[in-house]
Amino acid sequence: MAYNILMLQLVLVLLLPCAVLAQTSASTGSTTGSVPVVIGEEEGAAGGAETAGPSGQPSALDQVENWINENVPPEDRESFPVPEASAESTDVGLTLGDGSVTVDWGTGMLSALGTAVASGEGYNPARAEAMAMRHATLQARKFLQDAVLGLALNGRELLVDNLTPAQQTQLRGKLQNSPIERASEPGDNGDVLVSVVARVRLRGELADALVPRSIPFQSRIPTKVEAPILEPLAEQDMDAVEYKRSMAELGAFTGVIVDARGMEGAPALLPELFDPEGVAVYGPFMASRSMVLEQGLVTYADSPDAPLVRRRCGGTPLEVRAQAVAGPQRADLFLSATDAELVRLLFESEEISTTCPVAVLLD
Which intervals of the chain are annotated as region Disordered (predicted)? Predict the structure, then answer.
């Protein structure tokens, strides 16, 4: 594979010597906004990489793609399919972004935007637009790679902390072939504004590559962490507490909604719920790996009335309030002793726990 990558780089150097690719740097945990790059005739006058070759020969780009198809094994060119959402789909959850990268934590869809400007002043505007489109594509995929590696695994760790350098390289290679959507529109002075959106879904095959194999799913052995000091609760209505306890013991609750709004919490791939002593009451140890890969350990939303939440948690969910969020990634959620006991009672049913019927509300 390393030989193939080296040869691909050599082909690109030989065939595309005039491409000017300005990439915006991104930190491990976040990406910054992009500034459109102006690509004009100066960048493309010598090579003609995007135009057709002489006498009907393939263009340089076609030659590169042909070389990849002939020399790079399919498994090294593999891309992750992005299921098309139904036009009537309401499965939209908590969506966070910075302009360059957007993550829908309800559906698991991650999108990255790359932009460039093709100058209209040269004698070959079509070539300038093609070069701008290539730059925007590379930029979008670079943002996508950095965003995925910068995701929080849980409240204490980033995803990148659990991947070896070889695994990171392999993941970047797969993300390099992510599906893209291209668009262009006229600008001032004959310029063309080019944008490319690269997308992946943090579910299924990609999730299998992201979630470490070392995580003990369905072990029933709870995680233990250092707990923060929680504020004392106001006096509770004991009749209401006993009623909820009876509901939990009877298996009447269909899921759990944890309200952590207003606490500056953040989403993660594998968040956990803890009691006041720092003992987990819900997390990967309660769920099957296959179910987590399919739909996520929890879903995130900003309202308990979101259709996504109701479908996930059923018609009679247990609604609790987080008492604190903790961890460097702000994704560990701590519950009161009473609510933690109710969650434990609910998940004594293996049938319930394996379906991951948990939603976390953030803002």
Answer: 71-93
Scored b (16 or more CB within 10 A) or e, 128-147 reads bbbbbbbbbbbbbbbbbbbb
CB 282 within 8 A of CB 344: no
Residues 287-327 have pLDDT tens digits of: 999 999 999 999 999 999 999 999 999 999 999 999 999 99
In terms of C-beta density within 10 A (0-12 exposed, 13-18 middle, 19 or more buried), how is residue 211 classed? buried
Local structure of 188: helix, strand or coil: helix
38 near 117, Cβ under 8 Å? Answer: yes
**Tokens at residue 304, please?**
């308990």
Residue 196 has pLDDT above 60, yes or no: yes
Q: Across the beta sheet with 273-274, what order do the strands follow?
A: 280-282, 273-274, 332-334, 324-326
CA dihedral defined by 42, 43, 47, 51, rounded to 10 degrees?
A: -100
What pLDDT was estimated at residue 279?
A: 98
Phi (first) and psi of residue 81, to 5 degrees = -65, 145
Q: Are the beta carbons of 128 and 135 closer than 8 angstroms?
A: no
pLDDT digits (tens, 9 = 90+) for 162-183: 999 988 888 988 898 899 999 9
- Which residues partner with 324 through β-bridges? 334
Q: Residue-wise over 214-239: b if at least 16 C-beta within 10 A, else e?
A: ebebbeeebbebebbeeeeeeeeeee
187 vs 210: which has the higher pLDDT: 210
The HSE-up count of residue 76 (CA atoms within 13 Å, CB side) is 13
Q: What is the mean pLDDT of residues 55-77?
A: 50
Helix (H, G, I), strand (E, B) or coil at 32: coil
**Contact in structure between 318 and 255 (CB atoms under 8 Å):** yes
Domains of the chain, by residue range, sit at 2-79+92-210, 238-361
The CA distance from 344 to 353, in Å, is: 10
Whether the Cβ atoms of residue 317 and residue 342 lie closer than 8 Å to each other: no
Phi, psi (deg, nearest 5) at residue 165 = -55, -40
